[in-house]
Amino acid sequence: MKRLVVICLGVLFAFPAIARGDAIIDWNLHAQNTILTTVPPPTAHASTLSFAMVHGAVYDAVNAIDRSHRPYLRVAPVRRPASQDAAAATAAFRVLVALYPAQATVLQANYDASLAKLPADERRARGIAAGEAAAAAMLAARANDGRMAHGAPYPYPLGTEPGAWRVSPPLTAVDPAWWVGDVRPFVIPSARWFGTPGPNPLTSRAYARDLNEVKEIGALASTTRTADQTMAAVFWQAQPLQLYGGVLRDLSARYQLSPAQNARLFGRVTLAAADAAISCWNDKYRHLFWRPIDAIRNAGTDGNPKTEADPNWLPLFDPSTQAGLATPNFPDHPSGHSCVSSSIINTLQDFFHTDRIAFDVSSPRFPGQTRHFERFSQVLDEIIEARVWGGIHFRTADVQGAQLGERVARWHRWFAFRPDH
């Protein structure tokens, strides 16, 4: 059972408090602030790639000293003793500066502050060397990986036929990061490896059931959606790795994770999220399926006797609900939030060897408030519902997206970050 919690100063989720002296935690916050404040702002799916590059390099840098697990990339071990904090800070700094050179001044100040906390000795020097090597390996590995400029020319058709995706009002521009689905994955063999079965046929009962559900409960003026469901729908409309970043930092402090454990936790979560986003966006532009607003307004053309058009229908996700809310400008199926969230939730369940961990989630949509969960799986259950409550996804897109994310996380579990024995 979720509950709304008002938080006070000093509680862990006040943004962004650092609970313990750990460079991995520090540089997760620096990465978040750097990535999410860049201009133009990144899409949620594109930002997963940057987080993965940062934390993949941090993992390799720390693991070159810890040596308890297999490296992600080929980074040679360094002589010990060596500073894991220096390694983590250096790896993150070098990757972030390479990706966001316009923020180099702020990043340099953060890096100098990180090093100033450490004795200027051989341990620090060896840690710096490990971080430099890990960052160089990551940048080399991701060169020419398919990442493109924000707003690269859009190559797909805008649909006019029933079921075909088109940009939904009030937006007019296409997804500026449509290319994410063509990026080379981090761990999984191919972006198409975990593709979904796809949307329900327009004339099927399952399609009519999905459409009529979102038409009723996802409408701007819905009389069946509760106040808590409305809040939940809006709450989750934010960058997934911003939403979950606070959860990871809280769990790290609560369970007193070591730097090596933190590096592995953040590395596993961010690389799984990136591969889930890549797979999801590849699948979206394979199916090119319309969003509920267009499906409902044009239901008279779908050939299904169990659907009925409402040419004036509006979803909860409308600027009149909260500034910036709208039907996203990319295809419906599968749900990106479900794909990425499922990969993260399944990774957390595996990392902590349980589903039964209580935690709070904060959202930039509701500063000073959190939603509480008793299990990891409750988050995914709520996100699947929330995308329907928001009026922006069919249920099938959410369910199949969650299944895609689970398959990605399972692959990562068996083929990445394995113990070195």
From TrEMBL:
<dbReference type="InterPro" id="IPR052559">
    <property type="entry name" value="V-haloperoxidase"/>
</dbReference>
<keyword id="KW-0732">Signal</keyword>
<protein>
    <submittedName>
        <fullName>Vanadium-dependent haloperoxidase</fullName>
    </submittedName>
</protein>
<feature type="signal peptide">
    <location>
        <begin position="1"/>
        <end position="19"/>
    </location>
</feature>
<dbReference type="InterPro" id="IPR036938">
    <property type="entry name" value="PAP2/HPO_sf"/>
</dbReference>
